Every structure is written in structure tokens, then in C-alpha cells.
Amino acid sequence: MALALLINLHRNLIFASGLNCKNYTRVRVPSTACTWQLAFRVDNPASTGIKNSMHRSFYVFTILALFCASPLQAAAKKLIEFGWDEPDTPYMKEHIQQMEKTPFDGCVFHIKYKRPNGSHGDFIWEAWSKRAFHEDELKEALDDLKQTKFRKFKYNFLRFNTVPGDVDWFGDYSAITNNARLVARIAKSGRVRGILFDIEQYGTQLFDFHKQVDKSKSWDEYAAQARLRGREVMTAFQSEFSDVVIFLTFGYSLPWVQSGQGKKPLADCNYGLLAPFLDGMLDTAGKKVRFVDGHELSYGFREPQQFEKAYRMMKSELLPIVAEPKKYADHFSLGFGIWMDNSRHKLGWSTNDFGKNYFTPEAYAASLRNAVQHADEYVWVYTEAPRWWDKQGNSQNLPEVYERGTRGARGK
């Protein structure tokens, strides 16, 4: 609807100027400026009073710039909450009305499984293992989701970690693919938008070639096997959720940066095997599947140029480590993450003297606006000490001025 309104608006502007715009062409606008693409051809430039091609080009791109700057576009971007206040399904069911009063469009959440003795365990910390879970163990979590009355939160992501990661790439992956199918089934049946696929190596160094078990195998052998496992995991996800959004905390951007922009072999990068693993996921991804590179590397960005550079890197510069660039372009959405209390372990988090924080309220608001401006669709806000919701559903250690900065990131 917003796109249709904008197109009609700009057609009216063009027609009012006397330009003949019956024939439209598509022109790629610099992606750091916007994600819309629209252009037109002037059929009779002499009749418009525009006397040369330079002036015609200026007029076209003036209108395009106006199109890109529309507040409707910023409003269409999605803000996702993900931090140490990450809720489980019983919490969301009880507190969703309070949660939806925050500036977000959704959040990252986790599910728990029920043990035979009635206690509960954390599925996300045990699923990438030799242990195959059963649907009955997760029934309570799915029931919670079905009973949660989501209204504003339409872009929620069920977290799935690559931990404990105690299965070698050449080992038996049947339990992992089983668990991947289960998490996708719950996400789809629970009416959430997709899966937050957290590939961070919290335990085993899963993606570090030099930390693999079989020292007799080469990089090429491990890379080929990681790609195979990527296909299997993606097949499992989409077998239950054909239009799933796979939200990655890091995509290809991480191994590319670790490689020094291609100067160092992926075999010598801590996350080198992530690239072939993602290649495998792309190999089998259906047309409706979308990936988001959440670019956690932007946690501390303060300047617009940092977002512009990172977007350009994700869009084109990292393609040398992508096996199928066309599929990457078709399936990947490029996003950013901002850590509100960045470096709190060194600087602390002050709710009174904001000058002590890594981000002052003004700097935080500016960074978040820049993230929204440059992202294709998704931006996420990470927090540790500040909590958007505590056990009672209220905010904690979150000064109002930071909340206002979040709410104003899209001009709302």
C-alpha cells in the first residue's frame, strides 16, 4: 500500500511538471540511499523545457531522491528487540500487552522443553547436539505461542543456536536436522516470522577449521562437508516453513572481515567454515526463503559513513567468498544491530550521568536512525543492563530518553 501511494505521488509530480512519462524504465538507485527503485524516460524532452541530458538526469534523480527520503519508507523498516531480557513463551503469553507498548515490531524469544520429571530445560542451548528432541517435549511452548494474542508484534523470531556444537561435521547430523525441523514447525505453527539463527561459537569452535577433530582432513574436505550440512539444515527448516526468514546475527560479513577482505584464507579465520555452510543453505533455499545478515559488527557504529561502508561491503565487496552471488542477491536482506549499552563491561551503564555511557542518548538515537536509513528492512537493538521488560513486564535500568530515541528512529 505504501509503495503504491508513493508511486502515485511521484507520477502526479512528474505529470504536473509536463513530462511525458508513459514509458518507465528501472534504474538501480545507490543502495545506501534507499531500497526502492523507480525511474522514467522522458519521451519528448524539448516540450518540457529541459534542454540537455545533464538537466534531464538531474531532474530524474531529484525525484528519486525525494522518493527515497519519504518517511513512509523509514516506517516500513522493522525494529527487533534482542537482549538479556529475552523472553520465553510463558512470559510472552502473560505480558504481551506490556511488551507491545515498546517501540518494537517484534522480539527474539526462546522455548523450553519439558523433562519427564516436570522440570524444564533450555532447548536452544542443547539442540545442536546428538540429542534428538520430540515434539511432545515442546508442546507446552507451542501451546503458549498459539494462545498469545499478538497484535503489534508481528515480526518475532524463535532463537536457534549452534550449541553445544559437539558433533563433528563428518558425524551423525540426524539429531540436528531433526531439531531444525522441530524449531521450524513450532515457528510456523506459532505464527512467528522466522528463526533467529545464532551462529556465535559460545562453546565448541564449530566454524574454525583448525579446531576440527579430524586433523587428517584438508580445508577443502571440511568446507565441502560444511556446505553439505548447510543444505541439510536449510532443507529441514523449509520442509516445515517454506517462507521462513532466517535472521543471522552474522552472515558472510563476519568471515569476510576476519579474512581482511580476502587477504587471508578462510581456513585461517575463526569463522571460516561459516561461508561454505551458508553456501549450502543458499544452494537449497526455496524462492520464498529470506535471510537477514544482522551484521552484529555494527554494534558500536556512530557515524553514517560506517553504515554506508558496511552496507557496500555486504552488498558487493564480500562476493568473492560467496559461491552463488546471484542467489545471495536474491535471498539476502542486509541489516544492522545496535548495542545500546555497548562496552558496559568496561564503561558501565549509567542511568543518571549519560556522558559515561558509550552512547549518549543523542548519539544512540542518531546511530539507530542511521541503521534504519541504511538497512534493507531489519534493525535490531541489543541490550544487557537496560531491560525493556523485567519479571513483572516493566522496564528496568532504561532511561526514558533512550526509549524516546528508539521510538523516534523511524520518525514515529
What does this structure look like?
It is a single chain. The protein is α/β, with parallel strands linked by helices and 412 residues long. It is built from 14 helices and 13 strands. The protein has a nine-stranded parallel sheet. Strands 1-2 form a two-stranded antiparallel ribbon. The longest helix has 22 residues, at 219-240. The chain is globular. It starts with a helix and ends in a 5-residue tail after the last helix. The relative contact order is 0.11.
Beta-strand share of residues: 5-15%
Find the structural class using helix and strand composition: alpha/beta
In round numbers, the mean pLDDT is 87
End-to-end separation: 18 Å
Helix content: 25-40%
Helix count?
A: 14
Spatial shape? globular
Q: Give the strand order, joined by hyphens, for the main sheet.
A: 11-10-9-8-7-4-3-13-12
Rg from Cα: 23 Å
Biggest beta sheet attributes: 9 strands, parallel
Q: Can you tell me the residue ranges where pLDDT is under 50 for at least 5 consecutive residues?
A: 1-72
* Number of beta-strand segments: 13
User: Strand-and-helix sequence, N→C?
Assistant: HEEHHEHEEEHEHEHEHHEHHEEHHEH
